[in-house]
Amino acid sequence: MIGAGLQKKRMLSFFIVASIPFVLLSIFRGLVGVDSAVYEQSIDFIKANQGLSLIFEPGFELLILFLTEISADTKLLMMMITTIIVVVLYIGIIKIDRKPILFSSIIIPYFFLDMSMNGLRYGLAFSIVTLGAAYLISGRRKLFFMLLVLAGTIQISSLLLGLILLMLIERRYIYIVYSVCFLLVSSIVFSEYLSVKVGTVSELEGVGLFSGVVPLLISFFSLLIFFSDRRLRSQILAPLCFLLVLVFVSFVYAKFNYAGVRIQLLVLYLIHLYVTCYMRILGIRFNYRNFFLLMLLGIVAATFRLKNFSDESGVGLAPFAPYHFYWERN
Questions:
Q1: What share of the chain is helix, strand, coil (3-state, %, to 5)?
Q2: What's the pLDDT at 5?
Q3: Which residues of the chain have pLDDT under 70?
Q4: Which end of the chain is more exposed for a tag (fewer CB within 10 A), N or C?
């Protein structure tokens, strides 16, 4: 909130400086993040195989093989991937909004550490879609589609993110059909992988009574803030209603399938990416009341995320807590 009254350039500088601790914690982490141990083992296997192993999407494996030519150290490879995530994400953020209020309210506090320390594939893919969104609202659709395809080769769910974003921005609702078909096919094709994933993390994030409640609440209150803005409501009421439906549909789906929890996070990311892009298109800014509410919501979201990290302390081969730098442990 200190940066609320600053001019655009000063706000951007404030945003970058305030992000430095997050960036350093992500890049120089040790084996931190529930999925980090799995990534380390998988990267070792891909290096030993010296070719596509189809453990991950082909684009991500090709990136690993390319980075292997720079260094064979797996920990260093993971640091390089995190650095790429940070660079791509921040370029996308700055291209979309040089006074990044929405990104600093939810995307950075709630998503950033998980994107860069744990879910490397979705972190890189969502960052690429964010960069693509910057080109989409600038009228460079071909570059957007190229980046969307690239993101899909890194993590396939990013295609869903990009397609719905495209549909909402261009109001071409045929993309709803494409997105639904994609979701159904993906659920069938990757059902075995999702089942394994459920077994791996069931102790940490099982599909239970309260599964997905936090993303539901953050998404709902985000949309409530956006609905309260008269200028946004007059321009994008239908898309906001559509996003509200997605919020509740994904929450219901999360009651039956672990994939629903992932889709909830995708929808939350989509909400803030879309509204940020459309506010850029409309050339409008939030008033101080909504700015304050978004910052307050961001603090609450960050608190829940950090509590999740704390609850996983000492669990598994690569827990979020206690945190350690890469040089502190082997």
A1: 75, 0, 20
A2: 45
A3: 1-9, 30-33, 173-211, 309-330
A4: C
Q: Are 110 and 272 in contact (CB under 8 A)?
A: no
Distance CA 227, CA 236 (A): 9
Q: Which amino acid is at 221?
A: F
What pLDDT does residue 156 have? 86
136-189: pLDDT as tens digits: 999 899 999 999 999 999 998 898 899 899 989 987 766 666 666 666 666 555
Looking at residue 96, its amino acid is: I
The Cα-based distances of 127 to 79, 123, 130, 205 in angstroms read 16, 6, 5, 24
By the 8 A CB rule, do 40 and 78 touch? yes
Distance CA 175, CA 178 (A): 5
Q: What is the CA radius of gyration of the chain?
A: 19
CA quadruple 212, 296, 275, 127: dihedral positive or negative? negative
Q: What pLDDT score does 2 carry?
A: 44
The full length of the chain comes to: 330
Residue 64 structure tokens: 């690993």
Residue 91 is predicted with a pLDDT of: 92
Domain ranges in the chain are 19-178+188-311
Helix then strand count (H, E) for the chain reads: 15, 0
Give the model's pLDDT for residue 108: 82
